[in-house]
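Q: what sequence does this backbone want?
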């Protein structure tokens, strides 16, 4: 499997120029360690999705830099696996066929490798099922397996469990942790959910309200309850700050 690569974000600012300039991210710094599973949490509108787009190489920062394994991010590349809110499985392919698609062009036995990846995410017995025959959680896991087919150095997940009920979110989140433990892939989970961030992340980076930057990085460790309360307090502070600015405006 892949060896995780370190992810470094240095002094990143992103400003959109529409009717008037709007700075969404300002001087953001973050280090995701090699092989780490880190959750990124923040209030709505803080720039999480913009940061995700920058990490995926879909847009460029106004200033600052992003590096993966020491190489600058200048666009989409196979060193990053991406899983987004709306799973993008091909409805005419089975689960196995969807994962095989991620292996096209590689000098491997695609069917055997696809089966290995489905086994890693706990979906082996559903390999002949079509997406419409899978649960929402099952579709997310197949999408995860396909993203791992490239053996990325970094796995990026943007609110991948949105739309799932609480129990399914927990089950899929637990499966993500098991996948991370087996693969060692550096993983960044973007979420607005405090419970999810603390349950899945080994550390949690909390963003400020817009313009977003990292307010604090919290180690979860063995004291998940303490971490949950601390992350929750940090987010409440930022939500209150955002509301205060809106009222003042």
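A:
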């Amino acid at each position: 499997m892949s060896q995780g690569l370190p992810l470094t974000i240095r002094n990143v600012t992103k400003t959109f120029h529409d009717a008037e300039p709007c700075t969404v991210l300002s001087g953001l710094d973050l280090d995701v360690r090699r092989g780490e599973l880190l959750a990124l949490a923040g209030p709505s509108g803080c720039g999480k999705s913009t940061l995700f787009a920058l990490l995926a190489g879909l847009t460029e920062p106004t200033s600052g830099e992003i590096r993966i394994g020491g190489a600058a991010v200048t666009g989409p590349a196979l060193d990053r696996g991406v899983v987004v809110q709306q799973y993008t499985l091909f409805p005419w392919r089975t689960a196995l066929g969807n994962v095989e698609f991620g292996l096209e062009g590689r000098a491997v036995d695609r069917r055997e490798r696809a089966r290995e990846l489905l086994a890693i995410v706990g979906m082996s017995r559903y390999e002949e099922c079509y997406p419409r025959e899978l649960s929402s959680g099952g579709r997310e896991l197949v999408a995860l397996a396909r993203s791992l087919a490239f053996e990325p150095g970094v796995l990026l997940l943007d609110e991948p469990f949105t739309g799932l009920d609480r129990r399914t979110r927990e089950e899929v989140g637990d499966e993500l942790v098991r996948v991370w433990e087996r693969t060692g892939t550096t993983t960044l989970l973007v979420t607005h959910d405090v419970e999810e961030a603390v349950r899945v992340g080994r550390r949690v980076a909390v963003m400020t309200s817009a313009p977003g930057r990292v307010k604090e990085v919290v180690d979860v460790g063995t004291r998940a309850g303490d971490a949950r309360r601390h992350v929750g307090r940090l987010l409440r502070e930022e939500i209150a700050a955002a509301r205060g600015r809106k009222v003042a405006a």
